[in-house]
Amino acid sequence: MFCIKCGAKLEEGNKFCINCGNSVLEQNNKVQNIRNESTNVSAPTGDSNKGLASLIIGIITIFLPILPLSILGLILGIKEQNKDGKRVAGIILNIISLILSLITAIIVILAFYIAFNTSTYDYDDDDEDDYDYYDYYDYDDQYNYYNEAKEQVVGNDTYGYLILSKDWYKFVDVDGNTSIQYSYLNKYIVSLNVVTADVTLVEASTNMEENIKREASTATKKGTMIGSYPGYVINSKYPDGTYLDAYLFEAEDNKIHYIAIEGPDNTSEYFKIPNTFTLTEPIASSYK
Question: What was the pLDDT predicted at 147?
Answer without folding.
Answer: 46
